[in-house]
Amino acid sequence: MAGRTIALIGSGALAARKRALLASTPAFVLEFTQIPEPGALAGADFVIVAFEDAGLAQAGAEAARAAGKPVNVVDRPELSDFHVPAIIDRGGITIGVASAGIAPTLARDVRAAIEAAVPVSTGLVYELARRLRAEFRRVAPDSAQRRGLVESVLRGPAGECARTGDLDGAEALARQAIAVFAPPAGLVWLVGAGPGDPELLTLKALRCLQDGDVIVYDRLVDPRILDLARRDAERICVGKARADHSVAQPDIHDLLIRMAKSGKRVVRLKGGDPFIFGRGGEELAALRAANVAVHVVPGITAALGCAASVGAALTHRDYADAVTFISAAGRDGGSPLDNRALADPRQTLVIYMGGFALETVRANLLKAGLAPDVPVLLIENGTRPNQFVLRCALDDLARHSATLRLSGPTLLVIGEAARAGDSALILSLAEMAAKRAAA
Ligand SMILES: C[S@@+](CC[C@H](N)C(=O)[O-])C[C@H]1O[C@@H](n2cnc3c(N)ncnc32)[C@H](O)[C@@H]1O
Question: Ligand 1 center to residue 216 CA distance, Å?
Fold first, then answer.
């Protein structure tokens, strides 16, 4: 706004609000309480019109247009050429919240939430950063290293001191910290991304995503979760689609070790929970053996996320005393569904990786002694916008494999607990067949 001239045309409370806002900027304000002649607006860069009266608001917009100036008419997006965002001002940090004039109340709510989350003292930390900018660049010319340095200073005692308003004291503390700064060693966070819905991430997982220099992720991780990572973080997909291990497990270990040893903060992001059928245990052991610092951040495993999203209680006491998570994919090609005490009628079975082996699941469970009419919930893409849920009897499970055309991660919930669940979400085989045929 420096060097700009703004014309404010208006009267009453609306105009007073805008006058106060403009007075906090370095712009020069030309004020009119009545509609001016177009010539009077010649020196303005843009025009703000603030009248309660619809006719006056319209006339103000027309006057601005006649003078060839962009105009914002307060609370009237249809008359405006541009919109003015709600501003959160923290010294050098400015946050604008705009709704294109359509939902100013919602924008104000969002602004209030941000106001509460960003302390007023942020502006003081900004001022400290401004004072030290050249010093940061001199000491750490490499941008990744500089990020670590700046973070350690601004989040450390110097930053805290700045927040009290003692900027000189803060600067002295910062210079001491810079003098002894050594780049921190790298580390790996083994993070569970949950089943898909980004709101099912833990707070800790979110913090790791925002702090990590590199994100090494599986194909199963929902793209909306990757969007939450730091914008400039490097992203490396290591595949893990079924039958497409685009990076072999030992190579993933090597990659994690190499990255961490080069000083990077690595987020190893895995679908669900890293320790439930996710080979997280192997990665943890490999990292420890290589003396790399590693921390595990649990996630909501698919069984819990999917069951919750369809309203099926896995241990509803009317149906089950136990729940078993089991993988349909065996280590050396054998089926873990063989030779097990799976037939207990008061147990819920949750089968991972069974979507591509429906016939094997059916045959093995019938052989283990489960009744053919035991209900099964098949949940594909659980907790995601394209979630698909089917309920059928165990014996019918494989009958419609071809029609099902499963392509996303699929979980099977088997047992009396599968009778419950939100019927509005769950299709029968006949409904599914009709729906897929129509598609
Ligand atoms: C390699 S395992 C990884 C499991 C993951 N670590 C967890 O805790 O959920 C992959 C299997 O998890 C299940 N799965 C993961 N996310 C799912 C989702 N959103 N919906 C349904 N099943 C899912 C599927 O059975 C899939 O084949």
Answer: 18
